[in-house]
Amino acid sequence: MIIVREAKLSDIDIVYDLIIAIAKHHNQEQYVTTSKDELISSAFANPPSFGVLLAEFNGEVAGYCSYTWNYSIWLGSNYMNIDDVFVWEKFRGKQIGELLMLKAKEVCLSHGANRIKWEVEKNNNGAIKFYERLGANIDIKGVFRWDIA
């Protein structure tokens, strides 16, 4: 049985482990500078800086989706920005990623927003096909990053 739910404070260790796992998966662990304390103070602030959805497969955490809220001046409304979607390898192929995305859609709609955005590596064909199967469209724009401090 698969359950997708919002993360609780008691989940912070597994959330941190999942963040490290996706960073390792992308060979980018050296870029993770957050800490469990930072995650706690950001995710459980009022208002929270970000949210996390956890997928459980038969009671074991199988993956997660993290998100933030942004405002689009063109839309004139808020939208959800998904930061990470990750499923532990042993749970892949069990529709967990799809259920995480569908729960993100539900959360987005419950907040009165009607758009979700996220990034995907342009050579990650499996992920692109997966997202297109959900009905998402790829936006061909470059993403800049400017580290100023």
Structural account:
- Helices cover 32% and strands 26% of the residues.
- The chain is of the alpha+beta class and 149 residues long.
- A five-stranded mixed β-sheet has the order 1-2-3-4-5, with helices on both faces.
- β2 (51-57) and β3 (60-72) form a beta hairpin.
What is the strand and helix layout of this fold?
Layout: E1 2-6, H1 12-25, H2 36-43, E2 51-57, E3 60-72, E4 77-87, H3 96-110, E5 116-118, H4 125-134
Parallel strand pairs: 4-5
Antiparallel strand pairs: 1-2, 2-3, 3-4
Distance between the termini: 45 Å
Low-confidence stretches: none
**How many β-strand stretches?**
5
H/E topology pattern: EHHEEEHEH
Structural class: alpha+beta
List the domain count as a whole number: 1
Mean of all residue-level pLDDT scores: 95
Largest sheet features? 5 strands, mixed
As a percent range, the share of helical residues equals 25-40%
* Broad shape: globular
CATH superfamily: Gcn5-related N-acetyltransferase (GNAT)
Q: What is the CATH architecture annotation?
A: 3-Layer(aba) Sandwich
Count of helix runs: 4
Give the DSSP E fraction (strand runs of 2 or more residues).
25-35%
Any descriptors?
149 residues, alpha+beta, Aminopeptidase, 32% helix
In short:
By secondary structure, the protein is α+β, with helices and mostly antiparallel strands.
